[in-house]
Specification:
This protein is an alpha/beta fold. Helix content is 25%, strand content 25%. The protein contains 10 helices and 21 strands. The protein is elongated and about 75 Å long.
Length: 453
């Protein structure tokens, strides 16, 4: 028998180490090096992949770009996030929290694809009866080929016989190959199974959809190299107990990165939300202090989101809490507000929240966050038809943000009357039905809000 080899691999970047270490020598991450069972020496190519078509050498200049038709999933929002649809031979990895709706979305998509192309759904977690019950609940009547199996070699062998257009792996952490003695879900099993499935998909021009588990930190479980192997990585965002789900593309070789699509969970599955700006705005009929709307840019789509702030006297050490925004940036914004706006909050608790559960990562939220904090502190009600966006620098200047014209156009479509933006984002021609206030410094924006509310 071949002697089992033990190695040490970083679960973040996949780097091999000669011995255990507290910090990875490559990516410098702490406590990520784990002991794993390596594959036996001498195993060069899995037997299940040896009879696939061999690769050939080609001249780059001689290769002609082919306009390959993209396969639609039947969900226009998902197609847009994927870059227009699925391409032959592409490998898509989908991750998200348990119960967020990954299997539901994939089952709805493959049911639409199966109308014109054969689909093989491989489940390593649920039984065939469980998947059948879900399909009945979703109203799916398509005869999708279903396989409950975790043995990788059997899956690839059946894939060669059936030759489906799309193969779904639910989930990659449950798959295991007989070439490795380690347990399913280990670093080496996830890495080798994903590598073999990706090679099979590329050489047979099969579309591969893999569902992946996530850790408690929200990252995909398994080695970091897993995300490098695939063509597209999609993340499910949203509370499993909530209604709305956001699918974000964090990697896409065939489309834009950070493209999002919004779905609403219902009794019959996930439904597309064509106007997501409406769900991220609160439905309060009576405006209240500490609330204002801004326009964020998510890839090719501008979205209207509402920022809320609550400022209250602190009993003890003041708290700084952000939900949907960067925590450290709030401290920076409060310091700028004190230095350049002469408004102190050192004895106040400050809570900032983004309505709807969406996360805002861009600096265009600086101006809105500061204005909502001042609105709550001074008990000033900002009208509901006002918006603002802009980056606030450490010296108090309001800097312009990209795609300012498209942001203003989106706000104009939803009936907003006043926009407070950086002076460089102010359009040369006046907008119909909207007054655009251009400011160069933070104190100008604060003065306009305090005098007109």
């Amino acid at each position: 028998m071949t002697k089992t080899k033990i190695g040490f691999v970083c679960i973040e970047c996949g780097t091999n180490h000669p011995q255990w270490a507290g910090q990875c020598l490559e990516c410098r991450a702490w406590n990520t090096v784990e002991e794993v069972v390596l594959s036996p020496a001498g195993v060069t190519q899995p037997e299940s992949l040896q009879d696939l078509p061999a690769a050939k050498i080609q001249n780059l200049c001689a290769i002609k770009t082919q306009n390959r038709n993209k396969l639609s999933t039947g969900l226009s929002e998902l197609d847009r996030t994927l870059g227009g649809g699925l391409i032959e031979g592409c490998v898509v990895l989908i991750g998200g929290d348990p119960g967020v709706g990954k299997s539901t979305l994939i089952l709805q998509a493959v049911a639409n694809i199966n109308k014109t192309n054969p689909v093989l759904y491989v489940s390593g977690e649920e039984s065939a009866e469980q998947i059948s019950d879900r399909a009945t609940r979703l109203g799916i009547k398509e005869d999708v080929l279903l396989l409950s199996e975790t043995h990788l070699e059997k899956i690839i062998q059946l894939g060669k016989q059936i030759q489906p257009k799309v193969i779904v792996i639910d989930s990659i952490q449950t798959m295991a190959t007989s070439a490795l003695p380690s347990a399913p879900g280990s670093i080496t099993q996830v890495r080798d199974c994903a590598a073999q499935l990706s090679q099979f998909a590329k050489q047979t021009h099969t579309i591969l959809l893999m569902i992946g588990h996530v850790t408690k930190g929200g990252a995909l479980a398994g080695p970091r190299v897993l995300e490098h192997m695939v063509d597209t990585v999609l993340y499910f965002e949203g509370d499993a107990g909530g209604r709305y789900r956001i699918i974000r593309a964090v990697k896409n070789r065939f489309g834009a990165v950070n493209e999002i699509s919004v779905f609403a969970m219902s009794e019959v599955g996930l439904k597309q939300v064509e106007n997501p700006s409406a769900i991220f705005l609160s439905n309060q009929t009576k405006p209240a202090p500490g609330s204002m709307v801004m326009v964020v840019r998510e890839a090719s789509k501008p979205l209207l989101v509402e920022i809320q702030a609550l400022v209250d006297y602190a009993n003890g050490n003041p708290k700084r809490v952000c939900v949907g925004l960067e925590q450290n940036r709030l401290s920076l914004q409060l310091a700028v507000l004190h230095r350049h706006g002469s408004i102190a909050t050192h004895d106040q608790d400050v809570f900032v929240n983004v309505v709807g559960g969406v996360r805002v990562n861009e600096t265009a939220s600086d101006l809105v966050v500061i204005l909502t904090i001042v609105s709550s502190l001074r008990d000033k009600i900002i009208p509901r038809d006002w918006i603002a966006f802009g980056e606030v620098g450490l010296t108090g200047e309001v800097r312009p943000v990209y795609n300012g014209a498209e942001r203003l156009s989106e706000a104009q479509k939803h009936g907003f009357k006043v926009a407070i933006v950086a002076d460089a984002n102010k359009p040369k021609k006046p907008l119909k039905g909207m007054r655009v206030i251009g400011v160069e410094y933070l104190n100008q924006a604060l003065q306009y809000v305090l005098e007109n509310t």
